[in-house]
Specification:
Pfam families (chain A): Fuz_longin_1 (PF19036), Fuz_longin_2 (PF19037), Fuz_longin_3 (PF19038)
Protein name (chain A): Vacuolar fusion protein MON1
Strand order of the largest sheet of chain A: 6-13-12-16-15-14
Number of helices of chain A: 26
Keywords (chain A): Autophagy, Endosome, Membrane, Protein transport, Transport, Vacuole
Oligomer: heterodimer
Number of strands of chain B: 7
Organism (chain A): Lepraria finkii
Structural class of chain A: alpha+beta
Membrane topology (chain A): Peripheral membrane protein
Strand content of chain B: 25-35%
Chain lengths: 675, 192
């Protein structure tokens, strides 16, 4: 309780009488204690106190005292400190950081987010402190006092609203198998080492308006590490001299996927080469088959802070190893997607046949060339993927009438061999034509989108491909034939591939024509494609799509003006589609997005837990307050800043639902064009 | 024959269109070869082609003559093999690529040539191309297939690398007059 007492100590110091007095909170009598725990409190609070005192006396002292409190600038990656990091994990108390941290867990238990109505000004306030934040980098002292006052105010808010908070705290429920700690909903990004110093930058929490982003200013190893998540673990030299180092690097990965055959042959692994992982493959195979022999299938276990989830699919074992805090069901969905990718390459009969012939077959040869696709999927999951989490698709938002024109164009130009025709822009569906009796399975589309927009194989080859593939959701027994053609979305129109390189993956429009098991239909599809592009150009649809792609997603505040929401996911259950606002401006970095997605994963896990029937789930953490709301028609997950009030959050959630209802035919494809 | 030879607007101008298909084992550098030809680029790391990629390139042989290539760059993996006839059936030219550092790739190339001779258009021009000459340039001991071996198989063989622009360009430009003539005169031409 050191925190609260410090908070009230600040107010009782007479700071209230100074210019900062915008608040109605007076210290609760019971809270003013003779406190001897000053040494135990977080440095930030101490600094605040000093800062506040000095601000009352003389303004000029403020910058220097506050300076202690500023987040440090990011350090460049330090490859050499990997060993140090590992030591820190395994020998607690050995490093200085460790002792620094020891004070913080205390804080965790009490420092709740201010929820009281008195905090309603925080919006404007955050702007102020954001400026401060930026200014601190440029060392403009004049704006700093604002930040000081802001901090004090919040500290007081904590004291004042404590009773209100304690009720809401009860809505917490531990949701994660792997060491889920309520306080670390977002900190779990960095795995189950909950107590890691770097991920408890509480002192900055009260200073920065964007806690999600603030973390990147910490020079902690973990952050750097996540940015290196996708670095390749280099091959172990034949003489094994660098084996140790590569092993450490391999173990530092937050997420890894392994696929092996039931005979123990490696098929795919995201990180590490054969020499490195062969031992582990053997161990995993032994563990799995041990349980299998006992007729008790092993589904998952936790070890060393990582959750292992095992899925066995016929002759294949798929293993997900995650320190990112997803639950088993969510990891299973990801494994399922990897399995679907394998089926998509081989088809189920071929896969079964290969293993029936020879159980010890090395599947990597038949799968040759599929690795980049599997890795692209795996990396999507590591970065965090709303479509996978929600098992839903995202559509490009355009007017209903505009979509109708595109649908009609596709319908007019279709021929008998066409099964599905799709227009896709930057990973979002624009239009689809399909036979009445076949719908498209989201998992199939995810595979296609992954192939086109995440893996580079198709685009690097010029953007026009003829691809035999199996869509397991449609039919896992046979191939379909897909013709893909990319059209550049950049202003300088043209189907030429040359100017495409700069536009990046965000601005790609692809026309997909899928033919039902007739590999000779290519030339028909080529004609359709030419006709479609020609028509879309003529009736202006192409420029509409391009404009919509360039515009990107709207921000949350554009959708609901003045909202406290920073981001939300809305899934329409009936349409199996979702919509979300732009990640801008709060979640611009990869890490911030990953933390946001981790929060969504947690919310998703709690409302989808098997033994509960939650309709609404409200979460408060240091970094955000969030809400998951499930009805028979939709799922809504929304996240607001840490200082937003619960009422504002609920109101915004309602407004999002109203917005979607109003714009339903724009953000979703209802029905699509059917023939 | 799907190639078209037409006179353009200018008197004496000729425009010809040819279909070209690349075949060969996976990872011999078919896509790199095409990318060098079409965009004059080279990537150190390329993902495998998925299915087959379609590209076009138009070059002027001289003032009056323009040739447009429609290129099918096929994936080399075994599982895509059944699709190959679709690409080579109407092709005017097939470039069968092997990797001079991989002995097995020449065997595969020979199999492709055999299949083409049996199944493809009888006027098809088959070019045998040994790729990755730059690797051998740096480390001569990496060469697994000598030029004379390949020559013994084909009458002539062009050895080049998609990394090295100059030689490659000459190679492709060498093809085009050849193609051109053979199609114009309808003269059966056997692969290089």
């Amino acid at each position: 309780m050191g925190y609260d007492s410090e908070g009230s100590a600040v107010t009782s110091d007479g700071v209230n009488n100074t210019a900062i007095d915008q608040r109605d909170t007076s210290p609760l009598p019971g809270e003013v204690k003779g406190d001897s725990t000053i040494d135990e409190t977080v440095p930030a609070v101490r600094d605040l106190q000093v800062g506040a005192e000095s601000s009352a006396t003389s303004q000029s002292v403020v910058p220097s005292t506050i300076h202690e409190d500023e987040p440090r600038p990011p350090l460049p990656p330090r490859p050499g400190n990997l060993d140090l990091l590992q030591e820190g994990n395994y020998s607690p108390g050995s490093s200085p950081q460790r002792s620094q941290k020891s004070a913080r867990p205390q804080l965790q238990s009490t420092a709740t987010t201010a929820l009281s109505r008195t905090d309603i000004n925080t919006q404007s306030y955050q702007d102020g402190s954001r400026e401060t934040y930026a200014a601190s980098a440029e060392t403009i002292p004049s704006s700093k006092p604002v930040g000081v006052f802001g901090s004090i105010k919040r500290v007081k808010g904590l004291g004042g609203s404590e009773t209100a908070d304690s009720a809401s705290l009860k809505s917490y429920a531990p949701t994660l198998e792997a060491g889920g700690d309520v306080e670390s909903l977002l900190g779990e990004v960095l795995g189950a080492y909950q107590a890691r110093p770097a991920w408890k930058p509480l002192s900055t929490q009260y200073e920065t308006p964007d806690p999600f982003d603030s973390v990147i200013y910490d020079d902690d190893e973990a952050t750097v590490e996540f940015y290196r998540e996708f670095d390749e673990v280099r091959a172990v030299n034949p003489d094994g001299e660098n084996g140790e180092q590569q092993l450490v690097q391999w173990q530092s990965k937050r997420k890894n996927f392994l696929i092996l055959s039931s005979a123990g042959k490696p098929i795919y692994n995201r990180h590490g080469d054969d020499n490195l992982i062969s031992g582990y493959i053997g161990i995993i195979q032994t563990i799995i088959s041990f349980y299998e022999r006992a007729n008790d299938q092993l589904k998952g276990f936790t070890a060393a802070g990582a959750r292992f989830v095992i899925m066995s699919q016929g002759p294949l074992y798929l293993v997900a190893i995650s320190k990112l805090g997803e639950n088993d069901a969510q990891l299973r969905v990801q494994l399922e997607a990897l399995y679907m990718q394998i089926l998509s390459t081989l088809t189920l009969p071929t896969l079964t046949h290969l293993f029936a012939n020879r159980a010890s077959i090395d599947l990597r040869r038949p799968l040759q060339g599929t690795e980049p696709l599997l890795s692209a999927l795996a990396d999507t999951f590591t970065r965090g993927s709303p479509p996978t989490l929600l098992s839903a698709l995202e559509c490009l938002k355009i007017r209903k009438s505009q979509r109708q024109v595109i649908n009609d164009t596709l319908l007019r130009t279709k021929c008998d061999t066409l099964l599905y025709g799709l227009v896709v822009a930057s990973g979002r569906l624009v239009s689809v034509v399909r036979p009445r009796k076949h719908s498209l399975h989201p998992s199939d589309l995810q595979l296609i989108f992954n192939m086109l927009f995440e893996a580079r194989g198709v685009k690097a080859g010029g953007g026009e491909n003829w691809i035999p593939l199996c869509l397991p959701g449609f039919n896992k027994n046979g191939y379909l034939y897909m013709y893909v053609s990319f059209v550049s979305a950049s202003e300088s129109d043209g189907e030429e591939a040359d100017d495409r390189s700069e536009s990046g993956k965000q601005e790609e429009i692809a026309i997909l024509l899928i033919s039902a098991n007739n590999k000779e239909s290519l030339y028909d599809l080529l004609k359709i494609r030419d006709a479609v592009v020609d028509q879309l150009d003529k009736n202006g649809s192409m420029s509409i799509i391009k404009a919509a792609v360039r515009r990107g997603r709207s921000t949350a505040t554009d959708i609901v003006p003045g909202t406290v929401l920073r981001h939300f996911l809305y899934k329409s259950k009936g349409n199996v589609q979702f919509t979300m606002p732009s990640y801008e401006p709060h979640f611009t970095t990869m890490l911030a997005r990953r933390r946001l997605l981790s929060l969504y994963h947690t919310l998703h896990a709690s409302v989808h837990a098997k033994n509960t029937h939650l309709k609404a789930h409200h979460c408060i953490s240091h970094e955000s307050i969030s809400l998951a709301w499930v009805t028979p028609f939709f799922e809504l997950y929304c996240v607001a800043g840490p200082h937003a009030s619960r009422n504002a959050l609920a109101q915004s959630a309602n407004k999002v639902v109203q917005w979607v209802r109003r714009e339903e035919e724009r953000v979703f494809i209802i029905g699509g064009a059917v023939f | 024959m799907t190639s078209r030879v037409s006179t353009g607007t200018r008197p004496g101008a000729r425009f010809a269109q040819f279909k070209l298909v690349l075949l060969g084992e996976s990872a011999v550098g078919k896509s790199s070869l095409v990318l060098r030809f079409v965009k004059d680029q080279f990537d150190d790391y390329r993902e495998s082609t998925i299915g087959a990629a379609f590209l076009t390139q138009t070059i002027s042989l001289d003032e009056n003559t323009t040739v447009k290539f429609e290129i099918w760059d096929t994936a080399g993996q075994e599982r895509y093999k059944s699709l190959a006839p679709m690409y080579y059936r109407n092709a005017n030219c097939a470039v069968v690529v092997y990797d001079i550092t991989q002995a097995s790739s020449l065997d595969k190339a020979k199999a492709w040539v055999k299949e083409l001779q049996r199944q493809a258009n009888e006027n098809i021009i088959i070019a045998l191309a040994g790729n990755k000459a730059d690797l051998v340039g740096e480390h001569p001991d990496k060469r697994a297939i000598t030029t004379s071996d390949a020559e013994a198989y084909a009458k002539g063989q062009v050895c080049f690398s998609s990394r090295h622009q100059r030689r490659r360009r000459r190679t492709f430009e060498n093809y085009s007059p050849l193609l051109h003539e053979s199609c114009l005169l309808n003269r059966p031409a056997r692969g290089i």
